[in-house]
UniProtKB/TrEMBL annotation:
Membrane topology, record value: Multi-pass membrane protein
InterPro entries per record: Beta-barrel_TonB, Beta-barrel_TonB_sf, Plug_dom, Plug_dom_sf, TonB-dep_rcpt-like
Record key words, sorted: Cell outer membrane, Membrane, Receptor, Signal, TonB box, Transmembrane, Transmembrane beta strand, Transport
Descriptive protein name: TonB-dependent receptor
Species for this entry: Aliarcobacter trophiarum LMG 25534
Length: 689
């Protein structure tokens, strides 16, 4: 028997834990991301998705990307960072807001890395995850910049029980042509020894490249003025390259966490996480032949990455009284990226321009005070410093010397959770941010939840958001991006730009109203939402041929309207179903064009059936509608439907076998929309003891 969780957006593969639906009330499910306090999901006014560890195990997912691509209203897009390898990386966008507006947290902490976080989808092993909390709509009142579209908080396992236990998980998969192979091994042990709560995990993930043939025709230009050099020895050469749509990679992760209740009132904790990563792929890019003048465009290149990240944090929680408690936390995230890019067809210099050192330091204080039986106040102070040393922001496009840029954020926020009656509650919050590279900003949020008897509920939410320009949008200098070059808004580099552009922060107002009904175990929810974005940051193209370049500019106004329908029904203790339909209407009001990579319609159907007691099956069907890939709305990507099958068999209380087939019918997907390796088979074994 299972516990049912309904949230404002259907999680297409949600697994309901082993409790009877009639014995467990919805308000017993707790969430922390929406208010930074442990709150009943039944009283949260914002749209929220909870993905449990059982959900993840059910589909046999290895990485976060494999989980999130099956969550409706979340679009997995290809990366937009200015390197040819963006074709094999993914970013996530919530409800049509750009990937830069989705804040990804690990245990509530930001991660240093690439702009738009394209690698993170494959860096966090699912074996270490307790649950994923997704809050849709702006969360800037609690989290500041970058949360204009929503927050994805990945919460790792941290068992607080006295029992010690260990899990080992081994998995192998490949597509139907024995390509895109994936080997994964995970180890986790946790428990409590003499009052010290501990967790140790280790993971290794090895993938082989998935490639598709692509024609290329080389062109040589003068990099200073863009004029063609037809007499160059490499000009006009053409051929076919197997372009990587998924790097060959090896990723090793390890982490340790400790927590101790020093007294009944005082708790101390610390954790350390480390990973190293090797990646390699072949792409169509640009390079300069040694001993020759001119830049060779549209030529095969090889890209290699050696990346490392070190994360650490400490916290102190002190319960001053039953009504008053405070938590102080410091964390740092240090990322080192070393990229080498070299031509394949000719002898070229090794470009290290896309290497970087990135560091985030954050100190946050959160105090909660129960003013009375009806008001819970949360007061927070936050200081964050982000530093990026990179050659990609060096104004000299030929230089690999690092240039440093820093941004400081100082914030203060206050939130009040109000319980007017047993059936009516509200949440109100306000935040003030002082930002070193943008104007100071105040944001406001208010939401209300009204229960209409035992089986009905209505909720409404309003929230403001903002996002200050990131370092790439302001300062990047890339010799090749798509069919031209790319420059940050603050870069002055004639003849492509003659003056800098005053890039303003994005600002948004989000509105949402939802109605939920539970009738004899049939749960339905209908959500209407709207997001108005002012000064949305997007890329704009200028020039033609060798003088073409892209730069970041503000769109005057963008409107996003949407509907979500969620249905959930348990036919028997062995058979249950879930369905979601999401509609998006996006519009750039200055051009009256739709936003790119925002399908108008997406839908998902999930069917779970327990064949016999130890054998479970799961079928997931996802439909992604047509979407534009260009801002001019000239090229539309076809719609597609993917069908996945998962099976698991409990041999005994210790061992479980699992496996499945993704994309059973080998549906072809446009590589401009998503990375798809065709029919994919996987199998694994998990041990718990």
């Amino acid at each position: 028997m299972k516990k049912r969780i309904i949230v404002s957006s259907f999680v297409s593969f949600i697994v309901l834990e082993s409790l009877n639906a009639t014995e467990v009330r919805l308000d017993e499910v707790k969430i922390t991301t929406a208010t930074k306090t442990e709150k009943s999901i039944d009283g949260v006014s914002a749209s929220t998705v909870i993905i449990t560890k059982e959900d993840i195990e059910k589909v046999g997912a290895t990485t976060i990307g494999e989980v999130l691509e099956k969550v409706p209203s979340i679009n997995v897009q290809l990366g937009r960072f200015p390197h040819p390898s963006s074709a094999s990386k993914g970013s996530v966008s919530i409800r049509g807001v750009s990937p830069n507006g989705t804040l990804i947290l690990l245990d509530g902490k930001r991660l240093s890395g690439e702009t738009e976080q394209p690698y993170e989808m494959n860096r966090i092993p699912t074996s270490m995850i307790e649950r994923i909390e997704i809050v849709k709509g702006s969360m800037s009142t609690l989290y500041g910049s970058d949360a204009i579209g929503g927050v994805i908080n990945i919460i790792t396992k941290r068992d607080l029980k006295d029992r010690n236990y260990t899990t080992i998980d081994l998995k192998y998969g490949s597509n139907a042509y024995s390509k895109a192979r994936q080997k994964n091994a995970n180890f986790t042990t946790m428990g409590n020894i003499d009052g010290y709560k501990y967790k140790v995990y280790a993971s290794t993930l090895d993938t082989s490249s998935f490639k598709k043939d692509k024609n290329y025709s080389q062109k040589v230009i003068n990099p200073q003025n863009g004029t063609p050099i037809p007499q160059h020895s490499q000009n006009g050469k053409s051929g076919v390259l197997g372009v990587s749509y998924g790097d060959s990679s090896t990723l090793n992760s390890v982490g340790v966490a400790l927590e101790k209740n020093v007294t009944d009132s005082l708790t101390l904790g610390a954790d350390v996480n480390y990973f190293n990563e090797d990646r390699e792929g072949d792409y169509i890019g640009s390079s300069q032949q040694i001993g020759q003048n001119g830049m060779v465009l549209n030529t095969p290149i090889n890209s290699k990455d050696k990346n490392h990240r070190y994360d650490s944090s400490i916290f102190v929680k002190y319960d001053i009284s039953d009504d008053l408690s405070t938590t102080l936390r410091y964390y740092t995230s240090i990322y080192k990226k070393r990229n080498e890019t070299k031509a394949i067809n000719f002898d070229s210099a090794v470009s290290k321009k896309f290497s970087a050192n990135v560091r985030i330091d954050d100190v946050e204080s959160i105090t909660t005070y129960s003013l009375n039986n009806s008001n819970l106040l949360t007061f927070g102070l936050d200081y964050r410093k982000e530093r990026r040393d990179s050659a990609a922001i060096n104004k000299n496009p030929q230089s690999s010397e690092f240039v440093r840029k820093e941004i400081e954020y100082k914030a203060i926020y206050l939130q009040d959770e109000i319980e007017f009656t047993d059936s009516l509650n509200a949440t109100v919050g306000v935040r003030y941010d002082d930002i070193s590279n943008a104007n100071n900003k105040t944001t406001f949020q208010a939401g209300v939840v009204q229960k209409l008897g035992e089986n009905n509920k209505i909720r409404a939410n309003f929230s403001q958001g903002y996002r200050s320009p990131d370092i790439a949008e302001l300062y990047v200098v890339s010799p090749l991006y798509k069919d031209g070059k790319r420059y940050g808004a603050d870069v002055i580099f004639p003849p492509f730009k003659t003056n800098s552009y005053d890039l303003k922060p994005e600002e948004s107002n989000s509105y949402e109203i939802a109605y939920e009904n539970n009738f004899n175990g049939f749960i339905s929810e209908f959500v209407i939402f709207r997001t108005d974005i002012k000064n949305k940051i997007d890329l704009k193209a200028y020039g033609t041929g060798g003088t073409k370049y892209y730069t970041s500019e503000n769109l005057d106004k963008v409107n996003i309207n949407g509907l979500e329908l969620n249905l959930d029904y348990k036919f028997t203790n062995s058979f249950e179903s879930s369905f979601n339909l999401t509609y998006l209407d996006t519009k750039d009001k200055s051009t009256n064009k739709e936003l790119t990579f925002t399908p108008s319609i997406s839908a998902a159907l999930n069917l779970s059936y327990k064949i016999i007691e130890p054998l479970k099956s799961n079928i997931n069907i996802r439909y992604i509608g047509k979407q534009y890939e260009d801002a001019q709305n000239k090229e539309k990507i076809d719609d597609y439907t993917l069908v996945d099958l998962g099976l698991s068999y409990d041999i005994n209380k210790i061992f479980t076998l699992y496996g499945g087939v993704d994309n059973i019918f080998n549906q072809k997907v446009d590589t401009n929309a998503d990375i798809n390796v065709g029919t994919y088979y996987f199998a694994g074994v998990k041990a718990r003891f």
